[in-house]
Every structure is written in structure tokens, then in C-alpha cells.
Amino acid sequence: MKGAGMAREMPWYDQFIRFGQVVLHEADPPHVDIEWWQERWRENGFGGVALSAGGVLAFYPTEVPFHRRSRWLGERDVFGEMVEAAKKQDLVVLARIDPSLGHEDLYYAHADWFMVDHNGSPRGDNGLYYTCINSPYYREYLPAIVREIAEKYPVDGFLGHNWQGHREICYCTYCEKRYAREAEMRLPPPMSASAKAEEERAHRGWQRWRREVDEELWSFLDRVTKEARANTLWVGDTTQGRVASLAEFVVGQHESGHGGNPLWTAGLVSRKARGVAGRGKAAYVTIDAGSGAAGAISPATIPVTLAEILAHGAWPWTSIAAVPRDRRVLKEMAPALAWQSQQQQLLGGRMPGATVGVVYADTDDTSAYSGFDSHVMGACLALLRARIPFDLVELERIQAGALQDYQVIVLPNISELADSHCQQIRSAVSSGRSLVATFETSRRDTSGEYRTDFGLGDVFGVTATGHAPLGSLENAQYQIGGDHPIVPYFADRMVLPAVARVGL
After folding, report:
1. Residue 41 and residue 4: Cα distance in Å, rounded?
2. pLDDT in tens, 14-27
3. How far is it, in rounded angstroms, from Cα 256 to Cα 87?
4. Are strands 19-23 and 48-55 parallel, antiparallel or unpaired?
């Protein structure tokens, strides 16, 4: 792990660095105390900082048209001052940019750069408008901001906050033309409340295409960054498996403050980040420790959250407001960060030793549970309650032999499996691995179409009797009986609650 002032014997992104993120709000510039932040970075042993620079708002004297400066910036260059202060301590500096939203003046000047719904109306939130990732905003305007910052300041990279934009379907001209060209069909209409199989297939197709667009966009932005300034790179949330393979290191996002998520979800996000990073890359998990946003965690939970992240093989990346409203955050962080500093040689680069691998499929769900559906969450909760260590294995990684690291493989309703996935799982079982699978696992192919039978039916020893599962069931129970090795384990409990049924 690199600390302040440590000689860089290798590229900074190949080291384990303690990152802090300083988030500026529009009214903050007159109140930011640079010397106070230098003390905080020093006493907490930070090796890198991500500083709010631009995007929705600029915190430096930008010359890019319509790149709105903070109204409280005045003659000050608060971003530049913080960069200079960080560099005096030999810290890695990332310029934080949020390209996902634009103000009204930019919208009226370039309405075609923004997302529209199925009716042609702009998508927005609280007086701001969502930008479209296929528009010139991302392809021309954002690169202009990156180049301006790279030319003015000695930054080491750019942190793209919300770099993937808004996740709903955009029906602008750019998206319509690109989808028609690459997917050879029209964009699907919004999903109806009673969606039919054809609608679901169309939306799955869009989701697959969108993930491919994300990969291309990441490569484009990383290339723009490197061209703007040598030895820099683009950084962002990279827990999507295929994007993670393109990144120099992996960053996951934990938002414990949303939706009453349990504390252990910090460990879950860390498992995910560590899993897609593999053995050759550093994995970080960002926690909102008081940035002023709605997702900030309670100060009292900070020590256990940091411990959860470290225990699962990732490094915490703390996010704090530039003008802290709740200073309990720093008080609670200090002991945990001091302990991490003492143990950094032991913690850096270590991999968990779990023998159980829970497979999950990458989705476009951006919930606080980081895209895990209820089946995966249920499997994780069952293992946690039983105190059984486990890793999370992204579905696409099993092609690279990831299953060989585990003695037990869990497939929690991984309904859509390619024939190649099935063969990898079949081979793992043949080599002595145990398999636990639930509900519709392997019942569909990757296009969402039902197979005539389970793709892993020969491994399960079952045959499908019908296509669609029956559910949801209420006030129903399954009676346990028959000649099967599992029956004796339920000797005193011959019924189980039922919520749905797959014909077997």
C-alpha cells in the first residue's frame, strides 16, 4: 500500500492505496479549509484523493462553454488549491467528474444531447436533465472538460461518478440509430405492467446491448484520458464483470444509507469487487461517510463497515463532504484507519480462502444491493447465518476456470445459462465439486428462451414437466416424502412453506 511520501516503484494503480474522496457542494467554495484537509489526509495516512472538479458543476475557472461554475466560486479555484495541497504531500490525485446530468442552459443549447422517454419528453430530476451516453455530450463535450483539466492540473486520473449515465431506455435519435445499426431492430417500448414473454425478450436484448455500450464507452473515455495527459487513466464503478476486465483496478459502490440495507451488505459489495478483480488487481469499495448525500451511512456504523470491507479482501474508499456537517464521521473513522495502517502489509493483496462460490448473473439493476436479485440475496443470507464463508463468482468468470477455486458451487436461480456455462459447471461437478442449485437454474438459454429441458438436467437428475413455473403461491406447503437421500434430513419436519413451483 502506498502512503504519503512513499517512493513509487510501480504505477500507482498497481499498488494498494488508501483513497479519500472530498465532495464539494455548490455553496462550499468560500468555506473550504485547505490546511485543515492537509492535516486530515496526513493523520489518516491517505495515499490518494478524489476531488470534485466538474461535470454538473465546475469548481475551477473553466472556459468550456455551458460548463457551469459554482455560483459561490467567485475568484477562487478551490479544485486547483486542493490539487496543489495534495501534491505537496505526494498524493495520487483524481479529478472527480459527474457527466450524468446537465443544467437548463446546456439543455436548451443542445437538447439532442439529453435522454428522452418514449413520448419524446426529456428525462430529468430536480431541475436537471439526464445526459445521453450515445450523444455528443459524452463523445465531444465531456472529452473537452477532461482535456481542460488535464492541461491545467497535475492530476493522475479522472473519477467518473455516474459515468454510465441513467439506466433507463433512451429514445433519442442517437440511441435509435445506434440500436438499429448494432442490434438490427427498433428500441423496445417501455415494459408494461403485465409484460409478455416477447416484451421480456426485447428488454433482455436491450440490456445486453447496453452492457456492450458500457464497455465501448469505458474504453473510449480511458483512451481520451490517456491522450489528454500521459500516465493517467479513467476510474469509476467497475463491478460489472466485462468492464472490470478493462479497468486497471476495480471500484465498487456501497450505499448503506439507502433502503435500510443491513450492515453486512458492505461485505457483499466487497466480495463482488474482489471477485471481478481476481488475483491481479486491487479492489476498492466506496462508502459515503458523510458527503452530504442521502446515501450516507450513520457515523456509528463506520467502524464495522470498514471492517466488513477489509475482511473481504477490498480496501475502503471513504467519501466525505468538503465542508463536513457531521464531524463525528472523522472521529469514528480514525481508529479503524489507524488499525488498517498497522496491518497494511498483512492485508494488502490477500485473497479470501472460502471454499463455497455463489454464482450470480450481471444485471442492469442499480439497487443498493448492487444488482443482486432476491434469490442471490437469499443464498448469501443463508450462508451468513450458517457462518459458512463464501465468495461471489460473476457468471462470465466461470469460462476462465473460476469454479476450480471452490469445493461447493451455488447456483441461486441462475435461470439463463449458455451451453458453454452448463459444460463448465458439468466439468466442475465431474472433477469432484458439489453443486447446489435452486428454482429454474439452467431452464433458459441466454436469450431468455425456455429449453425443452434443464440444461443441467443430467447433473440434477431431474426432467422438466412443463415450461412456466407456477407462482406465486400463498398459504401453500410442500410435503416431503419419497425415496431420496435428502428426505432423512427432514425427519421431524415433513412440510415446507411454498412460494412457487417448477415442474419437475
Report:
1. 9
2. 888 889 999 999 99
3. 32
4. parallel
What whole-number distance in Å separates Cα of residue 24 and Cα of residue 65? 21
> What residues have CB less than 8 Å from 25, skipping those under 6 apart?
292, 321, 322, 323
- Whole-number Cα distances in Å, 253 to 77, 87, 250, 410: 29, 26, 10, 24
Amino acid at 222: D
Where do we find the cell 454538473?
Answer: 56
Within 13 Å, how many C-alpha atoms sit on residue 256's CB side? 29
Query: What's the CA gap between 359 and 373, in Å, rounded?
Result: 12
Query: Architecture of domain 356-463 in CATH?
Result: 3-Layer(aba) Sandwich (3.40)
Confidence band of 3 (pLDDT split at 50, 70, 90): very low
Q: Is residue 95 within 8 Å of 51, Cβ to Cβ?
A: yes
**Residue 456 to residues 203, 283, 452, 469: CA-CA distances in angstroms?**
26, 33, 12, 17
Beta-carbon neighbour count of residue 31 at 10 Å? Answer: 11
Q: List C-alpha distances in Å: 366 to 131, 166, 371.
A: 17, 10, 5
The span from the CA of 202 to the CA of 8, in Å, is 49
How many CA atoms within 13 Å lie on the side-chain side of 330?
19
pTM (2 decimals)? 0.88
Please check whether residue 218 is in contact with residue 247, taking contact to mean a CB–CB distance below 8 angstroms.
yes
As annotated, the residues of the chain forming the CATH 3.40.50.880 domain(s) are 356-463
Q: H-type helices in 435-482, by residue range?
A: 457-460
Alpha-carbon distance of 368 to 348, in angstroms, equals: 27
DSSP state of 323: S
What cell numbers appear for 125 in the block? 430530476
Q: What is the CB-side half-sphere exposure of residue 405 using CA atoms within 13 A?
A: 21
Residue 251, pLDDT > 80, answer: yes
Of 331-345, 411-425, 448-462, 489-503, give the lowest mean pLDDT range. Answer: 489-503
| Dist CA 24 CA 7 (whole Å) | 30
Reported as a single tens digit per residue, the pLDDT across 157-182 is 999 999 999 989 999 999 999 999 99
Cell matching residue 264: 453486512
**337 CB-near residues (< 8 Å, 6+ apart):** 18, 44, 45, 306
Q: 488 exposed, middle or buried (CB, 10 Å; 0-12, 13-18, 19+)?
A: exposed
DSSP 349: T
At 145, list the grid cell.
472538460
